[in-house]
Specification:
single chain, HIT family, subunit A, 90 residues, alpha+beta, globular, three-stranded antiparallel sheet
Length: 90
């Protein structure tokens, strides 16, 4: 009799813990890194004609609406904080 050993792959969450989060190199080349708040990185686009702030949450999901509620709330909170700073400097 041959025994087959079942291997269980690690879940996405466990893999995420093992692999450090990295922002795409092209995005980093196009932006200034302003800092990090919680699990969100705050970037500023280098092109002065498009003064965009970019909030990058540490996730492998592509859409903010797909984030779990606590993480989605943290991203919205970060965006709100960036907006408050921008309004102070207008």
């Amino acid at each position: 009799m041959v025994k087959v050993r079942k291997t269980v792959s690690k879940s996405r969450a466990n893999r995420q813990e093992l692999m450090p989060f990295e922002i795409h190199p092209q995005l980093l080349a196009d932006c200034h890194r302003l800092g990090k708040t919680g699990d969100c990185h705050v970037l500023l686009h280098r092109n002065a004609l498009v003064p965009w702030f970019i909030v990058v949450p540490e996730t492998d999901l592509h859409d903010v609406l797909d984030l779990p509620e606590p993480q989605r709330g943290a991203v919205i909170g970060c965006c709100s904080g960036v907006a408050a700073v921008v309004k102070l400097t207008e």
